[in-house]
Specification:
Radius of gyration: 18 Å
Largest sheet: 8 strands, mixed
Structural class: alpha+beta
Distance between the termini: 20 Å
Number of strands: 13
Number of helices: 8
Strand order of the largest sheet: 2-12-11-4-5-6-7-3
Shape: elongated
Length: about 200
């Protein structure tokens, strides 16, 4: 969509503002977020998959497991990235959701609190994870035990969580895409650039 918009400007059909207006905010977000490399993810998922659920909000994230707002805040205060894992989320969890890289829940669907908030924050979310159960200070999944501080990789596109770190590839920032993102920063206004990082 971005490439087509740029070509329309080069052809003289649209001006730059019109080009920005013809690409949705969701499409712009896709241009600005990194993703797991498909081959690296496939390999990790085949050996280290720990939870599967509904892909409620797209994106890719790596961080350490936190089971409460307090644990999330503690990790972030030490310069760590965190994944907030809850049975379900409520407004009380918002401080943790704001600082988490991704959100994972045991229950819920695409209209659940976790899913709706994650999409509004442009954060990956996997909800309704089958077999996710909570103990005192840990969680049990079909793929094993998750302890606080365990490193996890979350794919909001695939609805899956794997143990350990999977490398995230940076988004394309060359050619037509680079041109288009410059125009977004120059001309964009809500809803066109909602959630777009200022790069």
């Amino acid at each position: 969509a971005a490439t087509y918009a740029v070509h329309q400007v080069w052809a003289g059909t649209w001006n730059r503002r019109q080009a920005v207006e013809h690409v949705t905010s969701a499409q712009v977000r896709e241009l600005t977020r990194g993703t797991f490399h498909p081959k690296a993810w496939a390999e990790a998922a085949s050996h280290r998959s720990i939870a599967k659920g509904s892909p409620a909000s797209p994106g890719s994230a790596v961080g350490k497991a936190a089971f409460s707002v307090e644990q999330a805040q503690g990790l972030v205060s030490r310069g760590e990235k965190c994944i907030l894992i809850r049975k379900d989320t409520s407004p009380d969890d918002l401080p943790g959701m704001l600082i988490a890289e991704a959100i994972v829940t045991a229950v819920g669907g695409e209209t659940s609190h976790a899913a709706v908030v994650a999409r509004s924050l442009n954060k990956p979310a996997v909800v309704g994870c089958e077999g996710l159960r909570f103990g005192g200070s840990w969680a049990m999944t079909l793929g094993g035990v998750i302890n606080p501080g365990d490193v996890l990789s979350v794919s909001g596109d695939r609805g899956e969580v794997v143990r350990g770190k999977v490398d995230i590839t940076e988004p394309d920032s060359h050619g037509e895409v680079a041109n288009f993102l410059r125009w977004v920063r120059q001309f964009g206004s809500p809803p066109f650039v909602r959630g777009v990082p200022q790069i």
